[in-house]
Design brief:
The chain is of the alpha+beta class and 420 residues long. It folds into 2 domains: 88 residues, Outer Surface Protein A, domain 3; 307 residues, 3-Layer(aba) Sandwich (Protocatechuate 4,5-dioxygenase, Chain B), CATH 3.40.830. Helices cover 38% and strands 17% of the residues. Helix 6 packs parallel to helix 9, helix 12 runs antiparallel to helix 13 and helix 13 runs antiparallel to helix 14. The longest helix has 21 residues. The chain is globular, with a radius of gyration of 22 Å.
Amino acid sequence: MSNPKPYPALRNIQYSPLKQGEEHYIVLWDQSGLSDERLIIPLNLFYLFQFLDGEHSPEQIGMEYLKKYGEFLMPAKLEQLIADLDHKLFLEGPRCETAKAAAVQSYRDAPARKPQFAGKSYEDDPEKLRTQIAGFFTAKEGPGDAPSENKGKAIKGLVAPNYDVKEAGPLYAWAYKELREADSPDVYVIFGVAHAGLAGPVSVTDKNFETPLGVVPVNRPIMDALKSNGEDAWFADEFRHQKEHSIEFQLPFLQETAGVSPAGASSAGSPLSMVPVLSSFPPDSVLDSAHRDVADRIERFVSVLREAIAASGHRVCLIAGANLAHIGLRYGDNKAPTDFSFHRCMQSDLEMLKLVENVDARGFANFLAKEGDRRHVLGFSAIYLLLRLLDGAKGEVLRYDREIVDQFNSTITCASASFF
């Protein structure tokens, strides 16, 4: 094993609090999927992670521990922690770069993007999966059998969660019931959230996506137009699609409600295809002149994608797989949510969703920018792109709910919405 850099730098690693008995710990993991490892550490060591910034040596980090706790941290213990982080690919450096290059090549060589969460977040057996999805529609929290008011109309867009399917399946069903009963198109542009971040604001992949129900192919005419009229940067970070769940979680619902067969055709015989897009940018990037370069890249992508859709001649449905607020210790807040703080969050969500219903992309961005990321609405970028590309549509929020994700009451809010 190569030695870590003299000034160790932590990658964009996720963390969550953990309580075992009376002891408190932090769990670390890599949301990008480059590493499958986890690391559990005590709170006193987690304090030092702010100094794993590439600018502090181990000796300097040890001094910060002394300042904070008034006692020495044995150098061997700190060296072991840094070595463990490096071994698990949690640090920037040669081991990380080598592993990333191999993972990127493996992804590009694969004939299709394989399902990563089948058997974990949803059933991996095709018949069991179909039964599972059908059960979400008839569940107590699901949409039931009453016909949609939009039955038979041409659907233009959906917002659905990207939370674990086992837990939030009925909430997905509210959105996909509208698709099932609509005059559905053949092409779906799916905007997912890159939870591990991206080098740029968007990442497109031309990989077909495999699920237990078959393969959903990408739409080649639209993809070719993006490649010929766009930027290489849109595809440079496509490895992020490998372990990201926000698009994958939409596909079994899409396959069932749009009637796709294992061969990739709809029940009516016409091909079903998609354009998978991951996104990661904050509201300020489309509002603040200080971020003009990022805003210009987003505008360029929206323009080229709109032109590619128009040139394809296909009817397209836009789907945003996006959760809303993330509140609690797990997401960087200094205390656990209470019923009162959740209700305040819900009120803000519902006010924000009025702007989504009105397809007001700029108003949506302004609303969140004024909050200053107070509620950590991680689905902003996917919903923003959907709103920018919806033309002449009117939205309706179908269902709103929340999921409690840990023992400290950390909470994610979600909604389903349709656009006709």
